[in-house]
Amino acid sequence: MWLKITEKTDIAADILIKFENIATDLILTSLNIEVNEEPSVLCYWRLLGSGDNPPLEIGINSLTGMIRSLTFFIDANCFSKHEHAFFNESVAEAKGSVLVETGIFSKQFDFVDVNREYYFKYYNRQLVCIFDNSCYVAETISNGRLSLFIDNCKQVVGFAIKDLLESDLAILL
User: Fold this and answer.
1) pLDDT, tens digit, 9 for 90 and up, residues 118-170
2) Which one of 57, 90, 110, 143 has the fewest beta carbons within 10 angstroms of its own beta carbon?
3) Model-level pTM?
4) 166 - beta bridge partners?
5) What is the widest separation between alpha-carbon atoms in the chain?
6) Distances from the Cα of 84 to the Cαs of 17, 54, 77, 145, in angstroms?
7) Phi and psi dihedrals of 50, rounded to 5?
8) Which H helix or E strand runs over 147?
9) Distance between CA 122 and CA 135 in Å, rounded?
10) Could you report the per-residue pLDDT of 3-13, keeping only the tens digit for each?
11) Strand partners, 71
């Protein structure tokens, strides 16, 4: 069950990206998406992955459907050798944000766990995450350095952190 988009918006956001070494071969990555909106009551959609690392977690404002945070861990085993079909330059790109369906949550501060793998790839100064190696990326929606990958069913199937800084690369690679 992927996150279903209910609406595209032109809401601008400040995205704070932090890479932090927390062990010899483990990097905590957090993105906080700051927007001027009502108070947030976050629910979390989590990809459990292989179980080797904590889940990839997307925080969603349950009142608005706005994605407000992404948190995940990266180690050397996270990087996929698989060449995904995304890696072409013909994917349509839009600017803005998305609102996602919140009906998957049964209460405030809820968690929805999805028992699926996710894959990271370093590509063209981007840290790319694909939620499924068989997905097809039809569109990207970008806000600052964050791009969300959208499939033909209007579901979020991955993301990229674009324009990685030299300080980011020093930690990641």
Assistant:
1) 888 888 889 999 998 777 889 999 999 999 999 999 999 999 999 999 999 88
2) 90
3) 0.91
4) none
5) 42
6) 24, 23, 17, 21
7) -85, -10
8) strand 146-150
9) 18
10) 999 999 998 88
11) 30, 57
